[in-house]
Amino acid sequence: MLNFIFLVNKQGQVRLSQYFKHQDENERRDIEPEIVKKCLNRQENQCSFLDYKQYRIIYRKYASLYFIVAADEEDNEMAVYEFIHHFVETLTSYFDKVTEIDIMFNMDKVHMILMEMVLNGEIVETNKNRILAPLRTMDHASKR
Amino acid sequence: MNTVNTILEKINKMPAPKRLRDLIREIRSARTAAEERSVVNKECAQIRDCFKEEDNTYRCRNVAKLLYIHMLGYPAHFGQLECLKLIASPKFTDKRIGYLGAMLLLDERTDVHLLVTNCLKNDLGHQTQYIASLALCTLGNICSVEMSRDLAGEVEKMLKSSNAYLKKKSALCALCIVRKVPDLMEMFLPATRTLLNEKNHGVLLAAVCLITEMCKLSIDAVNHFRKDEFMEVVPQLVRILKNLIMAGYSPEHDVSGVSDPFLQVRILNLLRLLGKGDAEASEAMNDILAQVATNTETSKNVGHAILYEIVLTIMGIESESGLRVLAVNILGRFLLNSDKNIRYVALNTLLRVVHADYNAVQRHRSTIVDCLKDPDVSIKKRAMELCFALINQNNIRGMAKELLSFLEKCEPEFKADCCSNLVTASEKYSPNRRWHIDTVMKVLTTAGNYVRDDVVSTLVQLVSQADSLQAYAVQNLYRAMRDDISQQPLVQVATWCIGEYGDQLFAGTSIEDSEPLDASEEDVLNVLERALVNNNSTLTSKEYVITAILKLSTRFSSTQPKIQKLIAFYNRSTSVELQQRSVEYSTLFSTQDQMRSGLLEKMPVMEKTRVDEPMLANGGEKEDDLLNGGAASPATQTQQPTEVCESQNILDILGGPSTATPAQPAQPPKSTGGELLDLLGDIDMSGSSAGAPPPMMMGGPPLMDGLMGMPAAAPNPLLDMMGSQPLVNGNENSIPDIVGFEKDGLSLNFSFEKAPPPSTVTTMTVTATNSSPNPLLEFVFQAAVPKSFQLQMLSPSGNIVPPSNSGSVTQIVKVNNPQKQPIRMRLRMAYTVNGVPVTEQGEVSNFPPVLWQ
Questions:
Q1: Are B202 and A127 in contact (CB < 8 Å)?
Q2: Which of B42, B380, B409, B649 has a Cα at 20 to 30 A from B577?
Q3: How many interchain CB pairs under 8 A, A with B?
Q4: Contact B73 A79 (CB under 8 A)
Q5: Quick one: pLDDT at residue B279?
Q6: Model pLDDT, residue B361
Q7: Where in the cell is it found (chain A) (predicted)?
Q8: Cβ–Cβ of A78/B345 closer than 8 Å?
């Protein structure tokens, strides 16, 4: 299962974080910067997976934004890697060219998208239309 | 009225709180961390005030801001109750933020839980699916044990609803509940089974996840799903998978050209659990696995995700051999891929399957070796581990060469592991002694300071056993040390050898291609001096050097004055050990000169005391044996003669002195200590208390310690000399030993010592030996006694019981028996043999009655 997911920019500022398993506040404050630092320090020619404590960290970089996911050791790294891309594609189709600013100012909506895609750490839906349906319904209602 | 007015006033005075957008802007514009902190603190104070006012209009906005602040890493727990208020609100926008807040801020330990449970219960039954789904999602995220029990019924009801959206969410919520409270599984089983008939991929995905989790949690569930009387799960999964790969393009589930890869991966994962160890289930999957493996498009990354999973599944179940070869070949292709991620995955997987199909992996050895040169550390690390797993008798020379050049160039973090593994591998598979000595020496010269201490004793032992190679070894070690005295372990081995075999330094060697050493006695001493006075030499190294120099005094002829000078060098050292050596050794030149040549004799050949098998952790052992057939046995056979007994050595040393005292004529049967014990028994009877050191029989005992060549610095050097056999065995003769346990080659021998009355403590020494051909690793011995006794267990001498009775593990157990009752003891032994964990239990009730009478 996925344990947590961060969106961090190149400067190491967290833009979104969601934990699927309970994590102690203090512990969180320790591991978050550590993982972020590890990912940011990696070179182009290094692979996208690394081990951190009991987690397998999978990250992917889009423009200035890093998508970092902590999976379990037995998870399929390639599938998680692909999932990140799918998440980004979904964001793109909602925000139409998604940028760091979009994510930052629409934190609640990004959370909603993520909630539709991943439930309690398991991938639950991959069809973009179905993922975005609740959000679109909501937008529609608020416009009226 | 007055209060109403003041409140109204307050509200009028207070401006509407900032919007989230503005807060984000403000935080972004903060230039320093301190500035950001002050912005956040100010905002938090305002939010708190707002919360205190019980303001309903802006609660949602405030909580949203709080969530942002929380994300930045500031404390936000004071918003927990506000989230609940939002959840209770009838508006969807409020509920949405409320639930989001609950998910992010609440955890299973918070005391607001009871309140949440009620809110959730209401919302789970809400007619709007989005609200119900929010509740499901939150429940999964924060459920505690009580909550799970309270709400499991609701979730199960929703699992049976006709709404696909709720179905998939409730399935994953059920997963969380089952994970929290496994006994609730029963309740979900019937509904889960039918979920696989759904068409909706989201539901299928969730159902497969749920089944996987259940299978992981209990073996009963696995059996249930394997042999379900209503619906067989395996054929159903195979059908779904078949549809996925045969259906062709479906826009609804297409992910870069592959039909729902996430579902495929999930199903393959579940098939692995169901097929593991079940030939029948595995048989049913063979065809589809082959189909997926051959039909998956690999031009895109997604395809690799599926192939990766399928390889794991093929290797995890009882699949056909052809399929296994196919799987390893897929990984071989991965290894050649230009994408670093795929190479990483390939190595990682090979590492996982190397035990399942050793030969197939072996075929890709050269590609794996190439990965040692990869720029990525993660890839390098795995390549290294895999290389060690692949070493065997046939390829050791080539592999060792590659790994040595890797050792030279690799990052420091790899060096220690690489060294230890290389040393172990060469010990296990070396084609001959010379090669072995050469390799270990090369390890020491390349990365000496990274090796662990045991390598020093390994090489020393090796040289001492190789009679014909001693000249060769000592000369090469001298050269290596001359060129580099910074590698401490190298210095230690080299000085030990120079001291011991100094006379062979200038002799011709039996190895034809080695040139004679171009050095004089003076040169050798100069090199030793450099190591002795060098500030970078460790204390241990200096101790080695000073002993070596002493030994050279009988081996070198022309340099006595210099030797004496060097030995005296540390007679004022602040290190007690070093000073003691320096002073005592100096005495050997003055008052005790006549003893010197006798004391400085060559050490007897060192015996192997320990059969170390760390490679077993890689699981390489079992396959090797299969591969090499009987070929692996020579290694164990060569150990046979050395197995005579470690205490033999000790007897040798004490052999001399023991003649001074009349030896007891009656030999105790098969006692390991032999003469020595008798000797001590004798002393005991003559009145001195047990454990007191016998009168000094020669020189100074501490000296002996130094001459042993191993500066173990034990508190009592005499004890050290006698190895691990404790002195307390002295009056063992009076109480016979018993064998407390015997099974599968493992035997536990109990020997006793009773403290003199009024003490009621019995000290038992438990000696575990192993007559089977395999070592017992991670050996743990536990004992329990009835309540009327008190039990104290001291730490064991080790956790590996070597094979073929070639050594033992001893542990001292003290039993206090104040009521003088017959002793009974329960035993529990846990160990791993050939990678399989074993637990044994036993009971001992045949303790000699003399123990409590």
A1: yes
A2: B649
A3: 148
A4: no
A5: 87
A6: 85
A7: Endomembrane system
A8: yes
Quick one: pLDDT at residue B576?
85
Burial of B214 from C-beta contacts in 10 A (0-12 / 13-18 / 19+): buried
Query: What integer pLDDT is reported at residue A61 of this predicted model?
Result: 92
Interface test with B, best of A6, A35, A82 (most B CBs within 10 A): A82
Q: For residues A120 and B209, what is the distance between their CA atoms, to the nearest angstrom?
A: 11
- CB contact (8 A) between residue A32 and residue B345: no
Degrees to nearest 5, angle at CA B558 with B556 and B560? 80
Residue with tokens 């992010």: B104
- CB-CB neighbours of B134 under 10 Å: 28
In chain A, domain spans: 2-143
CB-CB contact of B669 with B737 (8 Å): no
What is the fold of A2-143? Answer: Beta-Lactamase (3.30.450)
Q: Is A14 on the interface with B (CB under 8 A)?
A: yes
Q: Do B255 and A46 touch (CB under 8 A)?
A: no
**Burial bucket for residue B639 (CB in 10 Å: 0-12, 13-18, 19+):** middle
Is residue A88 within 8 angstroms of chain B, CB to CB?
no
- Residue among A22, A104, A127 minimizing CB distance to B107: A22
**CA–CA distance from B594 to each of B422, B585, B589 (Å)?**
45, 13, 9
Cross-chain Cβ contact A22/B108 below 8 Å: yes
Q: Where are the domains of chain B?
A: 438-599, 652-727, 735-851
Per residue in B299-321, pLDDT (tens digit) is 888 889 999 999 999 988 888 88
Length of chain B, in residues: 853
Looking at the domain that runs over B735-851, which CATH code has it been given? 2.60.40.1230
A48 touches chain B (CB under 8 A): yes
The answer on pLDDT for B433 being more than 60 is yes
In B, minimum Cα distance to A52 occurs at: B378
Reported as a pLDDT band with limits 50, 70 and 90, residue B10 is low
